[in-house]
Amino acid sequence: MPKPHLVLIDPGHFHAALVQKEMYPGLSPEAYVYAPLGPELIDYLGRIARFNAQSEAPTRWQLQVQAAPDFLARLAQEPPGGIAVIAGRNGVKIERIEAAVAAGLHVLADKPAIIRREDLPRLEAVLTLAEERGLVMHDLMTGRMSEISRAIQALRNDPEIFGEPVPGNAAEPGVSLSNAHQLLKTVAGVPNRRPPWYFDISEQGEGLADTGIVSGRGARLPA
């Protein structure tokens, strides 16, 4: 029985490439890529080429690329059973997820799946369809399911350790969350260049939908 394979759909975010930073015994080394031709696809292909050429534990990915404006129509011809990896423009991500499920693919989707409230019914519908078809649809950010994250959650849920949460108010919130997400960062040893749409909230979403960025005024941005 052939091994399942990865199907990369419009990999515009580096999270898509990081899925292929190593090989997996249960997956075929052949991966299929459906995307429009442009700088984001070229950046993704460059990352995979570097993973294949790295001196320590090189990967062996064999990419079959369908680069065309009608890439979603071509995706519809993809045999079912593969695993779609979706990490890119947040504004149209739900369309990629719908196309993958319609093609009979399992889905690993980067956060957030949607950035607009009006897309909630579409997300609910595609989750229902995936369940009906026996397809797995899961969050790509697996760090949230790591042993450390689970241990922290277990400690948080233990009143003898954490105590009871306070109600809080606007002046003194019960929970305060902060995040430093740098504009310039190094990913897999290479400076990560943000595409122009990363700064468009209609494509990327605002801070409540996705992680915002910070930078220093007139200063060198930290990596």
Structural features, described:
The protein is globular. The protein starts with 5 loop residues before the first strand and ends in a 19-residue tail after the last helix. It contains eight helices and eight strands, in the order E-H-E-H-E-H-E-H-E-H-E-H-H-E-E-H. 30% of the residues lie in helices and 15% in strands. A six-stranded parallel beta sheet has the order 3-2-1-4-5-6. A two-stranded antiparallel sheet has the order 7-8. The longest helix has 15 residues, at 39-53. It has a domain at 6-142: 3-Layer(aba) Sandwich (Rossmann fold). The model is unreliable at 214-223 (pLDDT under 50). It has 223 residues and is an alpha/beta fold. Helix 1 (14-18) links the parallel strand 1 (6-9) and strand 2.
Helix/strand/pairing class, anyone? alpha/beta
Low-confidence stretches: 214-223
Number of strands: 8
Distance between the termini: 45 Å
What series of H and E elements makes up the topology? Answer: EHEHEHEHEHEHHEEH
* Cross-sheet strand order for the largest sheet: 3-2-1-4-5-6
Shape: globular
Oligomeric description of these chains: single chain
The named CATH superfamily of the domain at 6-142? NAD(P)-binding Rossmann-like Domain
Query: Percent range for helical residues?
Result: 25-40%
Q: Treating each run of at least 4 consecutive H or I residues as one helix, how many helices? A: 8
Radius of gyration in whole Å, from Cα?
19 Å
CATH topology of the domain at 6-142: Rossmann fold
Strand content of the residues, in percent?
5-15%
Please describe the biggest sheet, giving its number of strands, its sense, and whether it closes into a barrel: 6 strands, parallel
